[in-house]
Amino acid sequence: MKRTLAGPAYRTSRRSLLKKAVAGGAGLAGVSGIVGAGVYLSQSGHKTAAHAAGYQYNGDSIQNILNMLSTAKAAGVAFYTQALNNAHMLGWNHDMRNHVQAILVEEQIHVLFLQLQGGRPHTTKFSFPHGMKSVQHASKFLDTQQMLESILMSAHLAAIKEFGQMGRGDMAQMIGQMMGVDAEHRAWGRWMGNMMPMTNLVFEQVTIVEVVEVIVVLQKNGFMTPTNGNTFWYHPTNTVMGMNMNGMNMQNMQNMQITPNMQMMTPQPPHF
User: Fold this and answer.
1) What crossing angle do the helices spanning 62-85 and 94-116 adopt, rounded to 10°?
2) Which contacts (CB < 8 Å, 24+ apart) does range 163-167 have?
3) Is residue 99 helix, strand or coil?
């Protein structure tokens, strides 16, 4: 497929992009004893990073799941907002800015959906692993972007598992629909950084076992440790961009109505 992001500024930024970056979130701080591909099947008695940090876990409530996901998604909005504000420092041309604007709109709509279900971010004040360089230096932007998207995907996986355990297949599917979009964001970052192959995972990485760990993981990786000169706020952004909502609108986002594209399908037996 022919790329449309040609132009001197774009080619220059691509050459300077991440040779040192962490591919696919491999640089995430160690969480829950996860190593390598990060495949983990929860066992009774397992002490998670959240427990070690002093959290008491007796099964996440729907409210807590929504709050945790809202926090992680708000961090994404803050990050992509600042990246667009510093697009000139990153050498992005018009097409590149449009790509990132689309990602920002998608993350904002996800926050809106979670809020309409009652989710509230634990904070709207964030930091970035490399401070301001995370949105001003091409390789550090990509390092941060890959790390953040990996955290988001693992948070979604944990939420899907817990909603499934609650018998809330409708919410599990909606979270899966959001997670699929985050996987596209990660693949876009690898493509932009010339990381080959662009899609390099057979299974998504599990770095968050229980949704309650989201805050701990964000803190460990530098997204919730604001300091002087490294503090960035979540502010809602304009979502008018003509994105494909796949049948969703404000009313059914608020009421969690099952629209045709959200219906749970019963597998049919094969015919021989």
Assistant:
1) 160
2) 163/62, 163/65, 166/62
3) helix
- Cα distance between residue 143 and residue 210, in whole Å: 25
Q: Which residues of 101-137 are buried (b: 16+ CB within 10 A; e: fewer)?
A: bbbbbbbbbbbbbbbbbebebeebebbbbbbebbbbb
Cis peptide before 260 (omega within 30 of 0): no
Residue 53 pLDDT greater than 50, yes or no = yes
Looking at residue 131, the DSSP 8-state letter turns out to be G
Tokens standing for 207?
Answer: 């770095």
With beta carbons less than 8 A apart as the criterion, state whether 144 and 130 touch. Answer: yes
* Residue given tokens 């009421």 in the structure block: 255
Element at 72 (helix H, strand E): helix 62-85
Distance, first Cα to last Cα, the chain: 38
More confidently predicted of 56 and 69: 69
Q: Is 261 left (phi over 0), alpha (psi -120 to 50) or beta?
A: alpha
CATH of domain 57-236: 1.20.1260
Domain limits, the chain: 57-236
Q: 3-state DSSP helix/strand/coil percent for the chain, to nearest 5?
A: 55, 0, 45
Token pair listed for 89 = 């420092």
pTM of the model: 0.73
